[in-house]
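Hello K.,

You asked for the raw outputs rather than the summary table, so here they are, unedited. I folded two proteins back to back in the same session to keep the settings identical. This is the first:
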Amino acid sequence: MAASAFSRALETVLAHEGGYVDHPSDPGGATNMGITRRTLADWRGVSPYTDLPKAEVRALARSEAEAIYRARYWDLCRCEEMPVGLDLALFDFAVNSGPFRAVSTLQALVGVARDGIVGPVTLAAVAQRTPKALIEALCRERLGFLERLATFATFGRGWTQRVAAVRAAALAMASSSSTSETKDMTLLQGYKTYIVGALMLVIGALNLAGIDVPGFSGAAGMELIAEGFAIIFLRKGIKAATSRM
């Protein structure tokens, strides 16, 4: 069974986050699999967060970490609805620097209000852009933000390597998806296109013969026939062009 987009992205994130750490220079404090003590306490409804023992962070199970990542980062950023590759870049940015910053940075890149909430307007604006270009821009902005942090001197090397690795993985995913979509259109959808074109020819011929077809009553027979031929020949043209690539 093929892994889901979330599962693939999570594996990439966890590869960078590692296990339990409690670095004195890290403002996140005790962290396990990238889940901070504060985040875990909030997830479990513990307040103040200091009431959650660090031992609980150390003992964090993979299943609970996965649930947090899905709800608080992947779903919150609506990564499932992002283009392939951009979903990973946005998700990892959100995990590393917070969902609001990741989303608002993406919103600035696509020219919509920076409210940190992914809604229909943001999704529509993203759909108008080339995924690879957005991945490049988002990773560039992300690294620029990290370089301005006071802790960059301590963690900068690791952050830089992480952003570079995520950028490369995201671009590879986007390229693979683009190739797959082209093949799907030309090899799989092509048969459906021929069927639609043939049906239009038949319905057009019936209309010319004075026979009304439900849903097409009053349709101009010659127009349907012309459109049917246009669809079929367009499909053939696409197929021929693709075979020469």
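The second followed immediately with the same parameters:
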Amino acid sequence: MLVVDCDPQANATVGLGFGPQAVSCNMYDVFMSRAEGSPATPIQEIIRKTPSGIDLAPSHLDLVGAEPALYMMENRAGILAEMLSGIRDQYDYILVDTPPSMGQLVINGLYAADYIIVTLDSGTFALEGVSTLSKIFGDIKDDLGKEVLPAMAILTRWGEGAVCPEGETAEPQDLLYRIRNLFYKKPSLTPAGIKAAEEQKTEHERLLSMLSEIQRLFRTVYTVPYSPLVYESQKRGLPISHFAPDSSAGTAYKTIADVVVTWK
């Protein structure tokens, strides 16, 4: 498997064990190969093997500078697809990570993809992002003649700061905490506790409403519960599948992966 990090934030790169200065060449060099006067850098030259065994085409903050340059290039939407054409047969799966903001890097990722997975957090502005994305899909069809349809939506960090929906569970609580609950009566709620419970209920209802709307817009929707182990795995440069596969988030991503591998 190959991960192509087209996000200047380089979260996928860091999450797979490579720091910002760990590689001399990155996706910036690959995209800028098409700019006049720039040295040729085939994507094969920047691919690195990560500690988890996954191949990575790393990103860097420099990639921000490629965005305006791409607007000046011919056939700019198809540059990534062209770069990947020579290595597609070497991998069972190629995952392209794009920035959260719209631009030429996102369009390149969408144009190169056979399947599109939209990731959203559980925040208030996620639905606005879906609306913007739908417009981008329409523009690609009108301008480039390629119909772009998302195959799946994933709601991440689901349940953070709220009651988890039915079927979604957070990480197991501390054992001592659970034992105390078995033997000691819970104290009556204070006014502050009552207010917190009401806020929690309101947030729960918001999340359920959001889930219903996302399910209306996408054929396939999965939720991934909030888990601090995700952040721990990122700090160690390992996917959650390698660091904590039995965690709530690890189990959810395993379910998603089992679906994705059937697409090919």
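Confidence is low (pLDDT under 50) at residues 161-173.

Happy to rerun anything if the numbers look odd on your end.

Regards,
P.
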